[in-house]
Amino acid sequence: MNQTETLTQLKAFVRQSATLESVLATLEWDQQTYMPDQAGEHRSEQVAMLAAMVHQRKTDAQLGEWLSNLDEGEFAGGDENDDATTVRMVRRAFERQSKMPESLVTNLAKACSKGQQQWARARHEQRFDLFADTLEEIVRLKQQQADAIGFEASPYDALLDEYEPGMTVAKLTPILAGLRSDLVPLIAAIADSSCHAPVELLHRIFPVAQQEVIGRQAASEIGFDFERGRLDVTHHPFCTELGPDDTRITTRYDESFFSGSFFGTLHEAGHGIYQQGLRSAWYGLPPGTYVSLGMHESQSRLWENQVGRSQPFWQYYFPKVQAAFASTLQDVTVDSWFFAVNHVAPSLIRVEADEATYNLHIIIRFELEQSLIGGQLSVKDLPEAWNQKYRDYLGIEPANDAEGVLQDVHWSAGLFGYFPTYTLGNLYAAQLFDAADRELGGLPALMAQGEFTPLRDWLHEKIHRKGQTLDAATMARQATGEELSHQALLRHLRAKLAPLYQLD
Ligand code: ZN
Fold first, then answer.
1. What CA–CA distance (Å, rounded) separates 100 from 84?
2. pLDDT at residue 77 above 80?
3. Which of 168, 198, 297, 452 has its CA 20 to 30 A from that of 70?
């Protein structure tokens, strides 16, 4: 068989695996949205069965044979073309899987299953000790995983690379340290400011039926295509791709809080626009797949924050919101509304944090998990280390472990190296928005007129259509003409927040 035939077979096989995975995703989406409560047991069986089939295909020996046939020759290099990208990225995933001993995979799955149950109980009872032993085991297994996969400088690199291919501790640490040392005084100054955002405006009564209409309309205006996607309700909002023309996003509504569903919907719609902007012809293959979690998050944050929390956006959109909630918002001005949606204050819970303090929550987790995996911090000392960093960076301290070290599910699920992708998303979002603003000649004026298509198309061209042909950092560098840095994000936050809080 010549290499072209081998490649054709490999592509068909990988695409079929993706189709099988999309069946799994459909079942999981249904489970989160419409499945009746009693159906859980059979659904677990369906999911477990399909997951095993998907796993088997990903480690299939045939895949290894095709890849070794393609070891040298025209598809083997580091080229950016679609075929070479396919071979390079399929090989990367296959090699990562193959390096993991079967026993380690099983032990990790067991420890994380036990871990998540214990974590839920420990959080409920506010007792870290109920979860400590299993977390220790998970950390040990993740260290083994890093060793098995291999790394050059830091074991944490091997874990980070799973979510953000090509990113390393050495590249990320100085950027996050720079962000931290500029953010800490900015947030302290805001906390000391005598100006207060009128947050009560967001906690008035917003009937859910109107929230649904306005959220759907906003998602559609920024470019989420409802002919190729849906918006439904779940307890934990997410975005999932069920097929090349089927992107599902979800949200949740709270009658007495406007921001949760509105900005949550913009966020998930941003993820959805990325999925919808991928090239359908390459569905299930690396050129038609998102490049990294950090880049995915940049797309959601850009629409949620750079666009959705900007003054021009509200200049355009506030009259619509005010009309939808006429009796609730008749006495409210666009300026006070704009201040309210940009409220910044140190707080303990990451998922409720504002645009500015959010990054400190992530930096804390990045520093701690690096020390855990590197062996400099032991699990028993983790709660105190956590509390110390909250005191140092945010000037506040959790009253108990439930609102401290136990608040996130990630570590109990073995997701070490995942947190930094959230802040990477914010960094990329700020740099991409600036670059689009320069190239498109003034995004604020466009946004004030409700013109979002130029920005969406720019992102389609610079990011979405590229799939995995470049790594995320290179893609961002080509799109922005700059190296990854924290300056754009900091400029964005300062420019918006300094006038609101009257900082010098
Ligand atoms: Zn997200």
1. 25
2. no
3. 168
**Rounded Cα–Cα distance for residues 434 and 209 (Å):** 36
Beta bridge partners of 250: 232
Give the pLDDT of residue 79. 81
- The tokens describing 240, both together, are 């999932």
Q: How far, in Å, CA of 194 to CA of 107, rounded?
A: 53
321 contacts 341 by C-beta, under 8 angstroms? no
pTM of the predicted structure, to 2 decimals: 0.96
Q: At what angle do helices 82-99 and 40-58 cross, to 10 degrees?
A: 110
Q: Tokens for 116, please give them.
A: 């998540």
257 in helix, strand or coil? strand
Tell me, in angstroms, the distance from the centre of ligand 1 to residue 497's CA. 23
CATH number of 169-501: 1.10.1370.30
DSSP code of residue 172: H
The angle formed by the CA atoms of residues 375, 417 and 263, to the nearest 5 degrees, is: 140
**Nearby residues for ligand 1 (ion, Cβ within 5 Å):** 300
SS3 244: coil
Ligand 1 center from residue 443 Cα (angstroms): 23
Ligand 1 centroid, distance to 275 Cα (angstroms): 13
Catalytic position from the list 28, 241, 268, 297 = 268
Q: What is the mean pLDDT of residues 127-136?
A: 97
Q: Is 268 considered catalytic here?
A: yes
Question: What's the pLDDT tens digit per position in 160-194?
Answer: 999 999 999 999 999 999 999 999 999 999 999 99
